Amino acid sequence: MEPSGFKEFMPPADLNFYGTTAGPQHTLFGxxxxxxxxxxxxxxxxxxxxxxxxxFAHEFPAWGHKVGDELTSTVFKGIVNLAxxxxxxxxxxxxQMIGLLIRAAHFYWKDAPASLKRExxxxxxxxxxxxxxxxxxxxxxxxxxxxLAGHPIKTKAQFTKFMSGRLSRFVIxxxxxxxRLTKYAxxxxxxxxxxxxxxxxxxxxxxxxxxxEFAKTGKRTEVFFVLLVYWPEIEExxxxxxxxxxxxxxxxxxxxxxxxxxxxxxxxSAICDDIxxxxxxxxxxxxxxxx
Length: 291
What we know:
Elements: H1 6-9, H2 28-46, H3 62-71, H4 77-81, H5 91-118, H6 126-136, H7 138-149, H8 156-186, H9 190-204, H10 219-229, H11 231-238, H12 246-257, H13 265-274
Helix pairs in contact: 2-3, 5-8, 5-9, 7-8
């Protein structure tokens, strides 16, 4: 018997738009790495900082980058506001940064494991592990890790060791920086200390709410996240022959999600206009391609 939540985690059987064998971009690593890199670039743009080198977002569609820009004004707005501007000390921003780090630590050590356990992903059968391995796309992940490492990573063990070490170094560096920042903040005049302490709860909830959900989300933001999740299929649709329309895309996405996403097709079309997500011109029948 499958653990509760496992079926919800697995993708639909017809996830690939054409109904063919899924490619690397349809794996978990193939979907997430370009998307996360695009979000990283969007944060730098929103903070008006020089862009870092692109790692995996070369293949990410232009409309997806625009979704990232849109999300920096909602979900990621709190993080953008924390970006340093020059070398001036801002007591309240420093407090917000420490609050954000505390929330991130709580998510990593408490929320995430609890969510995995709740979804039944910590006690899988061998058959379920095979399904999950197929979904994850380990070879894609190892290729991505090799690019980051600068040398070949050929096994799951090597991948796990490299990524664990990379994460550990990041966590240690982040918390050392946070500790130094806290010590410095508490040595400042009392008004600055007050501003620092006032910023802690603001940072704690600037990105994630106490229930673990993203802060500052709405129906429009939900549509953006759904579009990002299915970006490989959407790109397939944009190249489909015969062409498909936004109406077809909306119906397909709602089928995958099992619920309505927009109150009307016009609202969805307006969202597509905002991110330049072009499909077939009006007049093409949205049932012209069968999934």
